[in-house]
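Work Package 3 (structural annotation) set out to generate three-dimensional models for the target panel prioritized at the project kickoff. During this period the team completed the workflow that converts sequence records into discrete structure tokens, so that structures can be stored uniformly alongside our sequence database. As a representative example, we reproduce one entry of 72 residues exactly as it appears in the project archive.
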Amino acid sequence: MRNPELKEARDRAIVDKFYELYDVKRLRMDDVLQELSQKYFYLDKKYIYSRIYYNKENLAYYNKLLKQAKSN
């Protein structure tokens, strides 16, 4: 049985790590997705990408991280 709270926490962790690798460390998108897939979350790269960019809550959280970085 899936726990929606755990899924939300996992998605938040995915977005956090994606932001760190892509926007802070400035790695290429395909390298970031590969690393997230094989090193951290053991999920398909396409699934990770879709959880970040096609889920409105996750995308809003990612945009919030970007906005906070610009204001600092």
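The helical segments are 4-24, 29-41, 45-53, 56-71.
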